User: Fold these one by one.
Assistant:
Number 1:
Amino acid sequence: MREQERFNAMMEDGIALRRYIAAEMAPLAFRCVDLCERALRGGGKLFFCGNGGSAADAQHLATELLVRLRSRVERPSWPAIALTLDPAALTAGGNDYGFEDVFARPLSGLGQKGDVLFGITTSGRSPNVIKALQVARGMGIGTIGFLGGDGGGAAPLCDIALIVPSSETMRVQEAHISLGHAILELLEDRLIAQ
């Protein structure tokens, strides 16, 4: 396959996934907005976690709330925490408790009932994201999964599972960030409308 054809195929795959999301996932996205709005209006926080590129997505989405999503919208900072941000906590948790606990351990200390956790895993099988979702469930923290493939072991631990039906990591990540931006933009619209 020539490079131009390959490039076009990549773009078309991403477009097809976004069309699927638009056609099939809007009700789930609106439920995510509802859950996050209740948390923030009730004094809660939003947490995000993931590995690798999904760790970067966790940081990206948390920052959109903590700092700014849209440059034309002036609004307060909202409490959003990426559990991937602290190298000291991540390495201490990995060393002292194991890599499976690097998100669950800080969540158990920072989270409270009524908060929301976004678990981001392109396979749905990341042990540390699954463990964080389990801990969140036990604490009364709402759980949202940005997942891929068939949702893996993470799906049943999510109050709302947004499963991108692809096993191509890059395409799943692209869809996750599109979903995240759409959910946060709708959330911002609601919160600033008051």
Note: The beta strands are 46-50, 80-82, 116-121, 142-148, 160-164.
Number 2:
Amino acid sequence: MNKSKFMPLCKVASVSISNVDKKTSANESEVLLCNYVDVYRNWAITEGISSKLMKATANNHEIEKFSLHKGDVCITKDSETKDDIGMSTFIADDIQGLVLGYHCALISPQKDVLDGKYLNAFLQTEFVRHYYELNASGSGQRYTLTLDIIGSIPVPVIPLAEQRKIGHIFSAIDRKIESNKKINDNLSYQSDMVA
């Protein structure tokens, strides 16, 4: 059995916090916005859900800094409660013009060291949830994860082949859940039509 080596996330990925808002400006370029709710509700952002993403605009600097690429991971960085902070999603496809919205952090793994699917699965463990609860700043009405807190998440770095196996298992489960949701939505639609 291979031993894992814990490393701070900032040593195996770049981390940045988005400031791209939902506004539309005539002097900016049109983008698809992966916003807080998209990150919060989806295990993965795929081409299949791109039609449901909000259209907004961003300036060239924001597009350069916060464009999302296959293999990236995003997390929500704010929440009303500590136990509901840091929800993550995996960018499963390259989607033209996809940019991360504000109140979220972009994590781009070093692909020769860290697999995005594996990182996404790890960020949803109780270990990381507890880390967030202990380290989130704020009190009362809003909690936040700072760049330093996110960059300091201790990540177990195991051989890439093992990371990919773990990531594949969780992605396969997510695809099955999405397929079941579509079937349920279709059945619900059909029953509404009959009634």
Note: The chain has a mean pLDDT of 90.
